[in-house]
Recover the amino acids of this structure.
């Protein structure tokens, strides 16, 4: 396995599947054996462009590969992944890992029992790995406050998928990874703008260590926006994920003492994601975003959606602590009172 190319099959040729196709074709240690998509016209077109073998059924490619990339609609993830694991294949599954927590848990259990790699496709995590390598933290304490804002101009690529499951889940994964502990309290509210059941959402997560995370997502915004703020008592880190620019403020007695800006440049997170998967399958490391990571993010996603459903029609402003109010009023003005 170490010396030969990894034989991979790709299932799903939508927007994300096409991105994965490009990266898999370029990876020097991967041989993309073939692809499947339920849209036969799309499948034929892509196969002709890239000289790929095609399959009439997804399970037909399981007999010719070492691993499978799944980028099909979320509702199909479990059935395809279960069949692949039953055939002892390593798996990459685009986020969200499944459409139900119990199904995701079953995939994680099977992969662990069979010692198979199960990687979840949270590509944003690789941008953060790159960023945090460049930020000299003053201490290893967890942030006091984490706030994220993620705005888009168009709804989900999957029909009917809400913004929490499609967009906010990236920030849920980030927060859970940074905290390395589950939240002890979740508050959330959201509304539909007529596109999906939830088009604008806000969530507040409290953690045992005292950290509070504020997550906001909107895909009927006037412009794209991806900003994350990490706040310690003596340092504030503001990251613009679209520009790749990070501003660091060192503070003392509430007065800025030092400001520095770091430019990350344009990293190729999708390629890094493929490379991590290949290395893990070859026994050269662990994947940064595992199946259990995907399961944990889905659990919190579902909890947030449940809270939103409970509160829809019963709007109630959230009470912020003095520290949260001090730092977050410019982002969450409508909630600060």
């Amino acid at each position: 396995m170490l010396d030969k190319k990894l034989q991979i099959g790709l299932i799903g040729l939508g927007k994300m599947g096409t991105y994965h196709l490009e990266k898999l074709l370029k990876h020097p240690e991967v041989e993309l054996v073939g692809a499947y998509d339920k849209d036969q016209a799309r499948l034929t077109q892509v196969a002709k462009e890239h000289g790929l073998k095609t399959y009439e059924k997804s399970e037909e490619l399981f007999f010719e590969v070492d691993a499978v990339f799944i980028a099909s609609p979320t509702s199909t993830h479990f059935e395809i992944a279960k069949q692949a694991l039953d055939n002892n294949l390593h798996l990459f599954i685009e986020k969200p890992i499944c459409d139900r927590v119990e199904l995701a848990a079953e995939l994680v259990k099977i992969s662990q029992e069979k010692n198979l790699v199960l990687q979840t496709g949270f590509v944003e995590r690789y941008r953060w790995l790159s960023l945090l390598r460049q930020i000299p933290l003053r201490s290893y304490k967890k942030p006091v406050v984490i706030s994220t804002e993620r705005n888009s101009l168009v709804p989900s690529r999957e029909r009917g998928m809400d913004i929490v499951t499609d967009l906010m889940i990236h920030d849920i994964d980030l927060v859970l990874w940074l905290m390395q502990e589950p939240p002890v309290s979740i508050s959330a509210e959201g509304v539909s703008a007529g596109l999906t059941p939830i088009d604008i959402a806000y969530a507040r997560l409290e953690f045992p260590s005292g950290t509070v995370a504020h997550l906001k997502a909107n895909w009927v915004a006037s412009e794209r926006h991806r900003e994350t703020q990490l706040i310690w008592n003596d340092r504030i880190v503001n990251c613009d994920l679209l520009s790749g620019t990070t501003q660091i403020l060192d503070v003392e007695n509430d007065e800025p003492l030092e400001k520095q800006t770091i430019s990350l440049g344009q990293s190729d997170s999708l390629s890094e994601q493929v490379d991590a998967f290949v290395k893990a399958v070859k026994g050269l490391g662990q994947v940064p975003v595992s199946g259990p990571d995907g399961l944990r993010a889905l659990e919190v996603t579902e909890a947030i959606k449940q809270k939103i459903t409970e509160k829809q029609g019963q709007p109630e402003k959230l009470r912020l602590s003095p520290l949260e109010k001090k730092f977050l009023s410019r982002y969450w003005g409508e909630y600060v009172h």
Summary: Residues 291-311 form the longest helix (21 residues). The chain has two domains: 6-116, 126-266+300-335. Residues 119 and 311 are 34 Å apart (CA to CA).
